[in-house]
Task: inverse folding
């Protein structure tokens, strides 16, 4: 029996947040205290595959773009599994409070892409996908839950041409 194309791919997701204060500050204590319980729920969720973490069990020491930007990088079976986790329980509660902990950024802070089953994306790979989404909008290479694409390989679009000022 040949596996379905969906089984050959898993959904990678990254979201970033620029901290309003140091992670160990009183302002961010509710967020910091919520990390371990939310990670435990994610780890036990149907369709969860993997998440970036260091020896402490989370990824708060790993940063994207600059020293104030936290990165959350994970892999899921599909968009349904990710959505089910994101919008219920403890994660939903912390998500509702995100403006208390993180600056509001104008550009995209979340992107999704399909990876071959078993592949574990790096922070650099996630940054590349997020920057691609910001430059091109949703494509097969980097997309959103609102505008998603079916599992499969995808190549990046060429970098947009910049206009030079004379």
Result:
């Amino acid at each position: 029996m040949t596996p379905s194309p969906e089984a050959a791919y898993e959904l990678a997701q990254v979201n970033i947040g620029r901290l309003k204060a140091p992670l160990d500050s009183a302002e961010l204590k509710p967020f910091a205290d919520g990390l371990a319980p939310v990670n435990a729920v994610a780890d036990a969720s149907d369709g969860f595959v993997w998440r970036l973490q260091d020896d402490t069990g989370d990824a708060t020491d790993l940063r994207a773009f600059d020293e104030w930007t936290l990165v959350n990088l994970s892999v899921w079976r599909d968009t349904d599994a990710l959505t089910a986790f994101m919008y219920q329980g403890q994660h939903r509660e912390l998500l509702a409070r995100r403006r208390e902990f993180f600056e509001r950024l104008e550009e995209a802070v979340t992107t999704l892409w399909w990876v071959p089953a078993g592949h574990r994306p790096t922070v650099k790979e996630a940054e590349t996908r997020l920057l691609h989404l910001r430059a091109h909008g949703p494509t097969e290479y980097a997309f959103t839950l609102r505008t998603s694409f079916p599992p499969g390989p995808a190549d990046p679009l060429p970098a947009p041409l910049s206009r030079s000022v004379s």
